[in-house]
Amino acid sequence: MNDFDPKDGAQPDPDDLRKIWEEMLKQGFDPEALAAAGGFDGSPESLRKLFENIQGAFLLPTPPEDGSGVNWAAAGARAKEISKVGSKALTEAEKKKLLDTLGIANLWLNEATDIAEIAIEPKLLSRALWVDDALPLFRALAEPVADRMNRSLSEAIQSQLPEEFSESLKGASNIMRSAGAMMFAMQLGQALGLLSKEAITGTEIGLPIYIEQRPAFVIQNLDEFIKSLDLGADEDQAYIYLALRELAHVRLFKHSRWLREKVVAQIREYAAGITVDTSRMEEISEDFDPSNPQELQAALESGAFLSPRSASQQTALDIIETNLALIEGWVDAVTITAAKRLPRGEAIREAVRRRRVTGGPAERTFQALVGLDLHPKRMREASALWLQIGQAVGNEKRDSLWDHPDFLPTASDIENPEKFVAKVKNDLGIGDAMDQALRDLLGDV
């Protein structure tokens, strides 16, 4: 193992630090075992040096303002490292093909929605650029859980430290909290790196990665997904369909400027209420086998450390799922209308729906880390509701429901679409006029 002193500016060997951490977990924090794992002699001074080395490795040069100690820069670096494996450069022909496709998609969308098209140019991304641009959103979603996780980990570790080291290691709790946060961030980096190989657009999880709202495409992944559909000569139809979906997403969030931050805030509030199962954490720590380093990683990825949801958590989750379903349902309904010229449109829609519902392994890992499934469970029902509203009152009135959150359908409305459609018609005076016309007609009989 390479010696490391944070004061001399050298960088620690990540593999050495990982081995130290795993051995610490296995040994239940026995001081002699810790010293042996770190290559020190077991004295309070050398053990303090061990913690300083971990601190030097796991903390940013300037601690984050959020106080979590999470090294998001390292998480991003890990994600980019993974994203570059198998990545290829974008060609000029691919750029032109997509830009031509977007022109067609915008024209068709203008017939399917009254929400104005986006003036800003689309961003064509490599996998590594997607990581750079997506990290702020994923950080915002994951921070509350990361903070809970590393606080609980530091408390569990501190409770097991021998009393004789309580004075000499007063800062150990903060150091180990940072170590725990780093573990979480690196797991998130791993998930993001793998997700960069699956992401097709900038709205991959239903929320746009850009605050300013602009369409974005990861061309390599887009091409690979379309080829997997085995459409042959009809591949161009899939390009148009996926362009329609991305542009519809971005138009909606641009129109409803409050929408992105509202959903992000709801997810953060939900995540802040997540509790950690400390007994499970201690159990895994005590039984940890250093010959199987994937055990701890698997525990984090599976969400094994997260406690079951409380009743209030479930209520919050239901609200988030309803909002995501409404977003995804509207996009689906508008895309169906805009893609009516595509002979293979319905088959492509079904393939996209399956992909959106199931997600890939990396997306499932992220969901386990934050304790939240971002796949809307009632997207089909929400899509049917938006289609009915459009048929009943027209695109303009349908889309005006996104002007304010109070206008949107609720979970109950998704379950009872006819009732909500009747309410919308009544609010607009459409139902009254039709009823009166019917009464006038019957009165003449």
**What Rg, in angstroms, do the CA atoms define?**
26 Å
Query: Outline, from the CA principal axes?
Result: globular
Strands across the major sheet, in which order?
Answer: 1-2
The number of strands is 2
Low-pLDDT runs of 5+ residues are 1-14, 24-40, 55-66
Q: Quick check: average pLDDT? A: 78
Q: What composes the largest sheet?
A: 2 strands, parallel
Sheet-strand content, in percent, reads under 5%
Structural class category: mainly alpha
DSSP helix count?
A: 20
Order of helices and strands: HHHHHEHHEHHHHHHHHHHHHH
- How far do the termini sit from each other? 97 Å
Can you characterise this structure?
The chain has helices spanning 14-27, 31-38, 44-58, 72-83, 92-112, 127-160, 172-195, 219-228, 235-255, 259-272, 278-286, 294-302, 311-338, 345-358, 361-370, 379-393, 395-400, 411-415, 417-427, 430-443, and strands at 123-125, 216-218. It starts with 13 loop residues before the first helix and ends with a helix. The longest helix has 34 residues, at 127-160. It has a domain at 1-58. Strands 1-2 form a two-stranded parallel ribbon. The protein is an all-alpha fold. The protein is built from 20 helices and 2 strands.
